[in-house]
Amino acid sequence: MTKYVYSFTEGNRDMKDLLGGKGANLAEMTTLGLPVPPGFTITTEACRAYLAAGEAPETLDVEVTAHLREVEQAMGRRLGDPSDPLLVSVRSGAKFSMPGMMETVLNIGLNDESVEGLAAQSGNDRFAWDSYRRLIQMFGKTVQDIDGDRFADILHKLQADKGYKGDLDMTTADLKHLVEEFKKVVEEETGEAFPQDPRRQMDLAIEAVFRSWNTERARLYRRRERIPNDLGTAVNVCTMVFGNMGETSGTGVCFTRDPSTGHSGVYGDYLVNAQGEDVVAGIRNTLSLADLERLDKKSYDELRSIMVKLETHYRDLCDIEFTIQQGKLWMLQTRVGKRTAAAAFRVATQLVDERLITTDEAVTRVTGDQLTALLFPQFDKAAEKTVVTKGMPASPGAAVGEIVLDNDQAASRVAAGASVILVRRETNPDDLAGMMAASGVLTARGGKTSHAAVVARGMGRCCVVGAEDLVVDEAAGTIHVRSEDLVLKAGDVIAIDGTTGEVFKGDVPVVDSPVMTYISKGLEAALDASPDADTQDLVRSVDRILTRADRRRCLEVRANADNPEDAERARSFGAQGIGLCRTEHMFLGDRRKLIEAVILAETAEERQEAFDALMPLQKSDFIGIFTAMDGLPVTVRLIDPPLHEFLPDLTELSVRLALKAERGEEVTDHERLLLEAVKANHEQNPMLGLRGVRLGLKIKGLFALQIRAIAEAAVECRKRGLDPRPEIMVPLIGSDRELQIVRDEALAIIADVSRESGMELDLPIGNMIELPRAAIRAEQIAEESDFFSFGTNDLTQTAWGFSRDDVEVSFFNEYFTYGIFGISPFETLDIQGVGELVATGVRRGRRGNPNLHCGICGEHGGDPASIHFFDGIGLDYVSCSPFRVPVARLEAGRAAIADRAEATA
Ligand code: ADP
Ligand code: MG
Ligand code: MG
């Protein structure tokens, strides 16, 4: 027979799956000998059975009776006994905390008779009737689904009529009156009198908690927090203790350290003569723990010693709910407390200093996301600001700039040295250029998974979405702020806060965060820049944890960077090389004409001429990057994108030439040739067309040019006394033969350059794995290759058959709704599918070449969950955007420590 009920004396903190977090920790505290009111926990399994069958299993009833008897015996009272009633609370508690989502009912067991008994036993009429009115109010709202305002309105009206300042002014007669009124509401709403049978009250409350698992808001919350829908909640039945028994009673919450700053030293709120829910509801101003010390030194001292005990036991910051009943302290809840990013780092190192945890454990107590939060620029706290509206914070940071409403404007203003905020009704893939140019992105529509939000987060660009108060008129170049009736124009300066969603008018000064100063300039510089002790303490904590993570990690961290500035930044953030240096931008801008000439060339001579013009430009690009990364590897990817990206748009060009012809203007030979070339190179699906290695094989001399430029740049750097370490990477390989052809050509060129310069060059030649076929044929490909770099963006596209720019806007939202994805496979690696391809590629590749060096480039290289996977399958490095480098360092350290812990466990 399944056991559905556990006494608080039977469970422990490791049983969260079955007992929920609250139940598991109540049991843990009971076992520790702390003063927890007796009670029992109904398992999540019972909840699942109830939700599946629509009714509680019969054996549950029987088990509840047995456990209730036990509690009654321990307390020497019976539930709802008319002369001296035992009262209980019925409390929800799932495996993961879902604050405010599910319900609790206090004071179960009171009815028209037992309220008199409670009054007589306690000698306190007011307390008894206060408890009864609370029961009817909470029971009506939670169990009977009556609109809570019906009760609250009556209560507020009574207080207003009598001129009371708050709940403490109410007399026993007032409370009796409220009980009568509340009972009438229940009868009106349900057609039945308020249930008087104590056990029935309890059973109905238990079922209501079960059902609360499936309320709309609970489902929504779980989706957002990625909590599975099928866990169910446990139910805790707990003997009532009373904080509302007069001046020597009260209720409070406390933390063993400050969860917002991480200050050591206790922190909490206390409310005299009140019951649990009053603290959160904010009905009166609370007192501090220091006040409690003055009011009731004995209880305070006991609480402090329990806090120390809990922190030592859990070895972490705990949060606690407690109640004092006439000078006697009771513990009602504890858990490892949530905290801000800054507090997470500070608390972790404090615990190391107090010898409660090891430094390795401290590394596991913080996350890459928390580190990210500390790296974003901040608005100067001291500055004055005017908020004009608020949207949804989609990607953190602080950005200031001129309003621009389209991409061309964004590009031209940025080229002129301005900083801009791209404001759009909503963004689409065509806005990528504008988003890249802008310091921040603001949209009037869309949610946290909208195109703008997803792309901005990927780029680390500050972004606020769904500011519905804004009417964006792109044609007129204006933004109307409806609530303020304010019109802003393109060129006006605004500021957006991606952490709060606030939009400000005018300039707000932005400063580097202290942790960013530490990451880019080192500890001394950061300490010099922020003299206040708290900030210094934070910076030191980050330094200690990151230093340890660096020492422990097995993965190297490289960055994706295409130019010397990004390379330098990446290096200052701790990158150990460039894992992906794209070369396509080296053919854009002014140089587009040259590549156009390559494509239009009718003879080998014409083509060679164009190559000759490109050569010195390419070479100097590479010299710049190799110089910035002196002594570290730079993986240069040969040209990758479809050809048409270097040619004008087909429709645009056709229309332009047609108009010209119609107006009788002359269409030049060049234009005619260009149109032909554009037509000839037009592809239905360029992503799967002539690109990557295919381009290199089709256009003779293109790869050769790049390879020679790399080799000659290396020679030049060596002449300057530097230590360049280029690696040549061939994109979009699907077969070993493709790579073999390019490799042979490359080796010949490198040998040439070596001969010409008299310098021995030994450049690794490897390839990207971004096609499923490449992962499958990895063994054969590796025989031709020195290294693999998994391009997980393209590999995700080719494995799923997705074109990212199309699918993200067209149907990803539906896929989230259906739960086909919990998270976009472009954000966190799809471990079961794409991950399997990567793992296969590594395994087979190393069979073909035991010295094969393996890494990944692609946004997943900076994503915590993906990094843990890459560590697990034995990659040598991850490569991510420069901004993500610190996060990758930390997460790689966490992954290594967690793996070792698993191995020894
Ligand atoms: P939540 O999960 O929302 O915190 P709880 O189950 O902890 O809900 O209960 C809500 C409030 O009621 C808390 O302040 C809690 O301390 C208080 N409470 C719960 N059970 C009891 C009890 N047996 N005696 C006194 N107060 C209680
Ligand atoms: Mg609670
Ligand atoms: Mg690719």
Describe this structure in a few short sentences.
With 905 residues, this protein is an alpha/beta fold.
Structure description:
- The chain has 905 residues and is of the alpha/beta class.
- Helices cover 48% and strands 18% of the residues.
- The strands form 7 sheets. Strands 14-24-23-16-17-18-19-15 form an 8-stranded mixed sheet. Strands 26-27-28-29-30-31-32-33 form an 8-stranded parallel beta barrel, surrounded by 7 helices. The protein has a 5-stranded antiparallel sheet with strand order 1-2-7-5-6, with helices on both faces.
- Helix 36 (864-872) links the parallel strand 32 and strand 33 (877-880).
- Bound molecules: adenosine-5'-diphosphate (ADP) and magnesium ion (2 copies).
- The site of adenosine-5'-diphosphate (ADP) has 15 residues, from strand 5, strand 6, strand 7, strand 11 and strand 12.
Number of domains: 5
The CATH architecture of the largest domain can be named as Alpha-Beta Barrel
| CATH fold-type name of the largest domain | TIM Barrel
Weakly predicted, low-confidence segments: none
Distance between the termini: 32 Å
**Broad CATH class of the largest domain:** Alpha Beta
* Corresponding CATH superfamily of the largest domain: Phosphoenolpyruvate-binding domains
Oligomer: single chain
Main β-sheet, in a few words? 8 strands, mixed
- The number of helices is 37
Radius of gyration: 34 Å
Question: Which word captures the global form?
Answer: elongated
- The share of residues in helices is 40-55%
Q: Label the structural class.
A: alpha/beta
* Average pLDDT rating: 92
